[in-house]
Predict the 3D structure of the following.
Amino acid sequence: MCGIVGYIGYREATPILLTGLKRLEYRGYDSAGLALLEDLPRAVTSNGTETALVTGTRLVIQKCRGKVTELEELSALTPIHSTVGIGHTRWATHGAPSDINSHPHTDQNERLAIIHNGIIENYGQIRDRLAARGHTFRSETDTEVLAHLIGEFYSEERSLTEAVRLALNEVVGAYGIAVVAADDPNEIVCARKGSPLVIGVGNDNEYFVASDAAAIIAHTRQVIYLSDNEMATVSRSGIKTRTISNIEITKNIEVLDMELEAIEKSGFDHFMLKEIHEQPRTITDAMRGRVIEEEGDIVLGGLQNQLRDLRRAKRLILTACGTSFHAGLIGKYMIEQYARIPVEIEYASEFRYRNPIVGDDDVMFGISQSGETADTLAAMREGKRKGARALGIVNVVGSTIARESDGGVYIHAGPEIGVASTKAFTSQLTVLSLLTIMLGRMRHLSVVDGRAMIRELLLIPEKVQRILDDSEQQVKEIAEIFKDATNFLYLGRGYNYPVALEGALKLKEISYIHAEGYPAAEMKHGPIALIDENMPVVIIAPHDEVYEKVLSNIQEVRARKGHVIAIASEGDEKIKELAEQVIYIPRTMSLFTPMLSVVPLQLLSYYMACARGCNVDQPRNLAKSVTVE
Ligand code: F6R
């Protein structure tokens, strides 16, 4: 979704802001813009001969619909000497993507500029009130209304910080904002509620503001995370923090755990492909230091204070969205089978609004790569309110879900830049496998069984590597064959039913081909009507408890002339007689098959998207982290 970057220091702001915005491109956006405080004096030549000297500070806005490179070109036409500025990538909510709706927005007198992530819910009322006082609005956005509101409070007697604070007290909604003003040229004011904001502390009196640490990691690792309802005034001499109810607060500087290479492509054509290939390592990282093989047990540091609740829990509730939801669905199957605890899994967006039954005997896990997904966060807050322990399974360290949880487990997948989630999914599955073994050992799982599961789990990274080595070329060829298909069906049973959902989601996200995932047996109850000679059907058929049943489903597809692409276990010769294409994966315990079977499906969607000329890393309309409802 939208991205924020800000800079105040001694260097030229424009290149720092543009590079920061490029680092945020992966989040999805449709327009970009800068607000720069131009350092004057400046010589202005008129009539070709006369030269006048202008002094003071000028607020300059450069913005356009389209990509950051287009903003870069625009900005190069009018170079601005500035050491203070803010930049934004916008993902349209209020008002279509257009030059005028792009951020930054200015107030009525064009003295201040604001960039904003989130949604101001009561912007309509504020807009009417301000319009009645003579304000005219140039855009259709809620953000411009906030700019005007801050402008109403901003005066010679009142600082920019105070004006922002007073305005925010009137606002209902979610925001991460950064504001600059020509009359206060030595500061950036920023604030957050429901939309992340981090302040980077550089060397030599320079500071950065960002909605995502990726935008500033090239400059500093020292950061301050703002929490909800907090604001900061960032100047070259330091950072002053307070709540929006005006209580001064002291924030700790934390050190970012992120490498610059982790947010670069390292020779791959796309981040998505790089991240698919990183999985042998990221799965290992998710297990690192957590496995006690001899005892057949698992230690998850972030859950050590929750062991009593986990032991007594009558039920687990998993909540998540999208790909993380699919991981949760597999988690339910694993935990119920091996730990014998009832598990409910629900889309966070449904859970938060339907008045679910939750009690003190419930332990809730929110699963989220970004740790910022608005629905997941709200569902966890709702669960907590009703008495459940709310724990997180999160990738981004320091994210809101991680900070608000009572405890939890980081998946340690490293930054995931490709919009389509890949390595986070297999790392979530790894952590859910660890959790399953841990909960199982607290209840019904013997040391021998725990040990056997751990030994098999430790082999998964190597098996993923084998799939990447052996099947990538084959998958690429399959993608060439089916690249013009307009529909795809994905079928799986048991542990691989959620993988069918995930395979279909990946395909539609980045190749824009309509795809549906189903439990294979459900095919007869409706989707079978779609099958004809134009329908490719991906069937996940590893050698597990439901293998024979899946073979029958393959027969049903073939009988209707559908094209079967099977994901099968190494050594399965029988399936070759039934399927047109067979992609082999190594054998493993059933509960771990999703970590293997999903890999060819990730590759298939990737190569389909490439073959169709789609923008793999930044698919249309999608945002990496969905911070609005
Ligand atoms: C799919 C995808 C999305 C996310 C979903 C939840 O490839 O990336 O479906 O899984 O938006 O995001 P997180 O996990 O960040 O809460």
